[in-house]
Structure formats: C-alpha cells, structure tokens
Amino acid sequence: MRQLSVGVVGCGYWGPNLIRNFYENERVDLKYVCDLVPEKLAKLERRYPTVKTTVNYQDLLSDPELDAIVIATPVRTHFRLAQQALSANKHVLVEKPMCGSSAECAQLVALADERGLTLMVDHTFAYHGAVRTIKGAIERGELGEILYFDSVRINLGLFQSDVNVIWDLAPHDLSIMDYLLGQTPKTVHATGSCHAGNGIEDIAYITLNFDNNLIAHFNVSWLSPVKVRQMLIGGTKKMIAYDDLTPMEKIRIYDKGISISEPQNVDSSYVNSVSYRIGDMYSPVYDLTEALKVEVSHFVDCVLNGQKPITDGRSGLRIVRIMEAANLSLKTGQPQEIPTDGVASPIANQSFAPLETRSK
Ligand SMILES: NC(=O)c1ccc[n+]([C@@H]2O[C@H](COP(=O)([O-])OP(=O)(O)OC[C@H]3O[C@@H](n4cnc5c(N)ncnc54)[C@H](O)[C@@H]3O)[C@@H](O)[C@H]2O)c1
Hints:
Layout: E1 4-9, H1 15-24, E2 28-34, H2 38-47, E3 52-54, H3 58-61, E4 68-71, H4 75-87, E5 91-95, H5 102-115, E6 119-122, H6 129-139, E7 146-154, H7 165-181, E8 187-193, E9 203-209, E10 215-221, E11 228-235, E12 239-243, E13 251-266, E14 269-282, H8 291-305, H9 313-332, E15 336-337
Parallel strand pairs: 1-2, 1-4, 2-3, 4-5, 5-6, 7-10
Antiparallel strand pairs: 7-11, 8-9, 8-15, 9-10, 11-12, 12-13, 13-14
Helix pairs in contact: 4-5, 5-9, 6-7, 7-9
The structure holds nicotinamide-adenine-dinucleotide (NAD).
Nicotinamide-adenine-dinucleotide binds at residues 9-15, 34-37, 40, 57, 72-75, 77, 95-96, 122, 124.
C-alpha cells in the first residue's frame, strides 16, 4: 500500500489534533511537524519520536519525497504558506477560514487547478457524523424543499485581537450550511456590536437570502453567559433541530409543518387558511467517529485516488466571500451582494460514501 508522506505546519492549539489523526492513519507517513517555536516541537518529539521536527518550513518545501502539507497556522499566514506548498507541488489541507481574503482564496484555487493538486479546507463539521446524517435526510428529500436555516453559536468566548466574531466562529456554521444546502446565497445583511473598545465586533447577526425564498440566519457571540450550539433546518415536509452540546439525541427530526389551503372568502375578505401538522419526532443514530479522523481519511483518498474533496478550495472561497460581504455590511449598515463566478459554484449533491452507522 502506498503511503502518503505528510508534513504538518503549526503546532499550537489545533495543529496537535491534526498531527494525532495523520499519525494514526495507516495510509500516512507523518514525516514532519513544523513550528516557529522550538518548545512546541519538543513536546511533540516526546510523543511522536519517529517524526522529524523543524522550525524551518523550507525543509518541507524542499523535500521531494513529501506529498502533502497541512497548514494549521494563524489565518494571516495561510495564503503564503499554501501558495509556497502548491508551488512546490505539494497537495494542501489548509485550516479554516481558508485565507484572509477571497482574492487570495481564488489564487490558491487557480494554482491548485493549474498544477492538478488537491486543495482542501478543514471545514471540520462537514465530516461530523451528525452533520452527515442530516445531509442524508436532506438528500433523500425527507425535509422537502428547504425553507430556512437558523444557527446559534454563542458562549463567553476568547476575545480575538485580529479578527471579529464572524471570522472566528461563523466559518463553522457557514460551512455546515454550504455543505448541507449546496446553494449559494445572493445577499447578506449583518449587524453587530463591539463591547471591548477595540472596534472588533464580539456579537453579530448575519442574514443570508437565497433564490426561492430560502433564508438563513446566524447568531455568533463571544459575550454569552451560556454556551449554545444549535441549528434549526425547516423544510416543507419536516424540520430538524440539531444541538451539538446535548449528550443524547443531538439530531431530532420533527414531522411538523404547516399547510396552506385555498383562500376563503370570509365576511367579504379573503384570508389564507393555515393548518398545522404535528406528527412524530425521531432521533436518528449517527456515526460517532471523530470528524477529523474521517476528514483525514477523505484527504488521503482525494490525493491518492484523484477524488474531489467535499470541502475543496472552492468551498473555502465561498465561505470567505460570504464573510467578506458580511464585514462590508457591518461597516456600511447595508445589505451586500455576495459575488459569485464560475470558480466557486457549489457542487450539487456533494457527498461521500457514508461510514457504517454506529449506535449513539
Ligand atoms: N477546524 C477547527 O475546528 C479549528 C479549531 C481551532 C482553530 N482552527 C484554525 O486553526 C488555525 C490555527 O489556530 P490555532 O488556534 O491552533 O492557533 P495557535 O496560535 O494556537 O497556533 C498557531 C501555531 O502556528 C505557528 N506558526 C505561525 N506561523 C508559522 C510559520 N510561518 N511556520 C511555522 N509555524 C508557524 C505558531 O508558532 C503557533 O504554534 C487557524 O486557522 C484557526 O482558525 C480550526
């Protein structure tokens, strides 16, 4: 079996999770870990004695045996490091958000296309068993036509000094939406406020409008006394409530909805008649495998078999475009159009083979 030779750059908070999952994948030879801070490498040397450590990213770029580079450094460095990796003919898995601007994302997509390399973004939740189960329900048409997507991700969070709460928290929810709905929003309207005196928004509300009356709303905050990670997805047939923090029944699928009957002439005025349907609720089982493990395996498949990643560079670009337009809306107070062009249209039915279902 051919093993993929991989190097991971960035060994801060998130990098070690990627390192562990790449190290444990039997189709991977984790060859390097790289960080500017030697103390971080020293800790990893004790845990992974067979892996080379280096403070010099150039060591990875110049190794002709290395197939792929995984980038888990701060967002402002993603573009330069990914561009160097692709230019050195390495496949790339880059952390979310893909880059600090859509122009940078588009350049990376073009470079990867030109060189026939895999470019994937770590939109971790797209690989979460619960999210993949919801995707299955949507693809089977169980929900009917999707009417709305509503998401809350709030807690007393770490106030960042370089990005606002949208760039910090919303990539997760936007990428879940992008994966589940496979549709690109037309406009965004964002409002928010800053309470730390530094001009960086710590609370934000984002509304996205799509064609066919679909609407999505996101509430992200670092200033909530309670931690909430909830989503509601409403369809014409059924509705889903997804609570990522509850230990049991994270996904609930409700056979609830409304029916509109023909307008009735009541006392010479026409009124619509809304009737309610209240049926059963069930909570499907889903795969409990760690999302990053599934994602790492998918990345390896994509590189070794030339598969297209479900969270490819184009999905990273779509998410960054939404956030850029949301930021502009925050500053101007006006709704903004979300640019689209050929490079970033969503892939219909983007999906990958389900893993075996495990019990909850
Ligand atoms: N997918 C997820 O759920 C998830 C969760 C947390 C963070 N992230 C993302 O992971 C990335 C890193 O976040 P973090 O919280 O781990 O940051 P961090 O600051 O804790 O770690 C970043 C590390 O990168 C190193 N570094 C910076 N520039 C470097 C360079 N040029 N060469 C080598 N090393 C360099 C730093 O020394 C540091 O150790 C961000 O893009 C973040 O958005 C993703």
